[in-house]
Amino acid sequence: MITLEGFGKDYGDFTAVDSIDLQIEAGETFGFIGPNGAGKSTTIRFLATLLRASRGRGEVAGCDVMGDPVGVRQAIGYMPDNFGVYDGMRVWEFLDFFAVAYRIGKTERKNIIANVLELLDLGHKRDDFVNGLSRGMKQRLCLAKTLVHDPPVLILDEPASGLDPRARIEVKALLKELRKMGKTILISSHILTELADCCTSIGIIERGQLLMSGPISSVYRQIRRNRIIEIEFFANQDAGLSILRSCPALRSVEQEPEGRVIAELDGDDEVVASLMEQLIREGVRMRSFNDRDPTLEDVFMTVTKGLVT
Ligand SMILES: Nc1ncnc2c1ncn2[C@@H]1O[C@H](COP(=O)(O)OP(=O)(O)OP(=O)(O)O)[C@@H](O)[C@H]1O
C-alpha cells in the first residue's frame, strides 16, 4: 500500500534522508520511530506530496507520489505534526471545508460529518468554535478531518504529541478502531510506549537511515539473541555479580536498588540456562531469575546502538 524505493532528500549539502526502501502492506499500522531530526517528517511530507524527493520514488495506494500527486491526495488522510486550525470557524464548518475541498456533495457531507464527529466523540462540540477547543480536542478534530473523504491510507505525524496521558490512550484506542475499519496507517512518534501495543509493524530511522523495519514480531525475534535477564539476589549478591561479570556472553550489567540486577547477554537459551545453573551451583541464592521479553524500547536501544547486523 505504501512503497519507498531509494527515497532520499537533501537540503543543500545536508542529507536529511539518505536512501530508504520501505514496504507497508494494506491493513498494517506502521510505527515510524526515530529521535528528533531523524528524518521522519521529511519522509512523511514526501509521501503526503508536499515535498519533492532528491532521489528515489514512492507509491501510495498504487499512485506514484511525484507522478500522480492528486491520486495520492485522494488516497490519504494526512495529519501534519504542526497542524493549524482556522479561527472563527465552528467544528462542523471546519470539517465541511475539507469535505468541500474533496468535492463531496452537500447531502453526503452532512452525513459524513455526523459520522466522523461521532467516531471521534466530538458530537457535543459540533457547534463550538474551533479556536476555543482544548489542545486534545483540536488534535482529535484534525484527525477527524483526515477521515472526511474516507481514505484507505492515514499518514499521521506525531498525532499524540503534547497530549495528556488520558488523551493519548484515547488516540491509541482510536487507531485500533481505524485499523479494524481496514485503514492502512503510518504513524510517527518518538514515544515508544505509545506505539508498542497499537502497531503491527515498525521502522526505526536514525540520522536519515532506516536501520530496521518489518512486522513487530519479527523485529522482536531479531533482537531476541540479545537477552535481558533480571535477577533478584537474596544472598551472596557479590558472588553472583562476579559470576555474571565472568560470563563471556555478558554485554552489560546494571545494579538496581534492593538486590535487583539487569544483565544483557548475547546468547541463546543454552547460555541463559548455563548461567542459571552456575549461579545455583555456586550457592548464590535468588528470589527470581527472569528472562525478560524485549520491549519496543529494548528494540530501539539495540538497533540504534548498532548491535543488530
Ligand atoms: N526545510 C529544511 N531545510 C533544511 N533542513 C531541514 C529542513 N527540514 C528538515 N531539515 C533537517 O532535516 C533533518 C530531518 O528533519 P525531520 O523534520 O524530517 O526530522 P524528524 O525525524 O521528523 O524530527 P522531529 O521528531 O523532531 O520532528 C533535521 O536535521 C532537520 O533539521
From TrEMBL:
SMART domains: AAA. Its EC number is 3.6.3.-. Keywords: ATP-binding, Hydrolase, Nucleotide-binding, Transport. Belongs to the ABC transporter superfamily. The gene is yxlF_1. Residues 2-232 form the ABC transporter domain. One of its GO terms (molecular function) is ATP hydrolysis activity. InterPro entries: AAA+_ATPase, ABC_transporter-like_ATP-bd, DrrA1/2-like_C, P-loop_NTPase. The keyword Cell inner membrane does not apply. It comes from the Bacteria. It comes from Novipirellula herctigrandis. This is Putative ABC transporter ATP-binding protein YxlF.
